[in-house]
Write a structure and sequence with these properties.
This is ABC transporter ATP-binding protein. This protein is an alpha/beta fold. It has eleven helices and ten strands.
């Protein structure tokens, strides 16, 4: 059974269509990459899948998350699905964190929700132990200091690691990662990507990974959907899509990634250079 089944999903702003008839299935433990340039509709597709579209946007079609319909449901009906079934890591950790709350308090919230869901009593000491354990898992040094810190007092990479810890502490079965490394510097990007890859593997989660960066997606996804102007133009196993793309648009994306990689490596790009 699919954990996430999207059928004929369309998103519009008034009379302006933004996403057109997107369909895909995501099984438990599977990793799916949504790839495309800015404005291709990949993030809208992901946010519509959990009912997190911005005001003024309208979704049509069908989205079944753990067998429950998302499209057309009031927000209160979707609250039980968020965290327990699906959690999101956003592009900008600054926007995802409350600037007026200490990081420890923000991490405590999903830990408490999960404990209540599982019928566990959580003492103050047990809560602190779980907070520290999650910060250890996302490789944050000096967790005692971080728990007392405000978001503006830590680096962008540390903020994103805290956001990842908060998402996973909910105990989801599906993690949606929307451009999770784009706002970070290059060295931090690689560290956070490797961390995310390992955590998803350790937890046995399904992953919906959204990015315009083909080399990043090729590292982390099993299967890929390529989107352009709100439409899926190609889909298939990541290895096949990135080494033998069929659609002209996918070919242009792969060629651009190869040229960039060749420039970084100081080599001449060839058809055999994988992104």
């Amino acid at each position: 059974m699919s954990l996430l089944r999207v059928q004929g999903l369309s998103v519009a702003a008034g009379n302006r269509p933004l996403v057109h008839g997107v369909s895909f299935d995501l099984a438990p433990g599977e990793r799916l990459g949504l790839v495309g340039e800015s404005g291709s509709g990949k993030s809208l597709t992901a946010m519509a899948s959990v009912g997190l579209l911005a005001p003024g946007l309208r979704a049509e079609g069908s989205v079944l998350l753990d067998g429950q319909q998302v499209i057309g449901q009031p927000d209160r009906a979707l609250v039980p699905l968020r965290g327990a079934v699906a959690a999101v890591v956003f592009q900008d950790p600054t926007a995802a964190l409350d600037p007026l709350m200490r990081l420890g308090d923000q991490l405590a919230a999903p830990i408490r929700r999960r404990a209540r869901r599982e019928g566990r009593d959580l003492s103050a000491a047990a809560l602190r132990d779980e907070q520290t354990a999650w910060l250890d898992r996302v490789a944050i040094p000096d967790p005692a200091r971080i728990l007392q810190a405000w978001p503006h007092q830590v680096s962008g990479g540390q903020r994103q690691r805290v956001a990842i810890a908060m998402a996973l502490a909910c105990g989801p079965r599906l993690l949606i990662a929307d451009e999770p490394t784009t706002a970070l510097d290059v060295s931090t990007q690689a560290e956070v990507l490797s961390l995310l890859d390992q955590l998803v593997r350790d937890e046995g989660l399904a992953l919906l990974f959204i990015s315009h960066d083909l080399p990043v997606v090729s590292r982390i996804a099993d299967r890929v959907l390529v989107m352009r102007q709100g439409v899926v133009v190609e889909e298939g196993p990541a290895t096949r899509v990135f080494t033998a793309p069929i659609h002209d648009y996918t070919q242009s994306l792969v060629a651009a990634a190869r040229r960039l990689q060749a420039a970084l490596d100081g080599a001449t790009p060839t058809p055999q250079v994988a992104p």
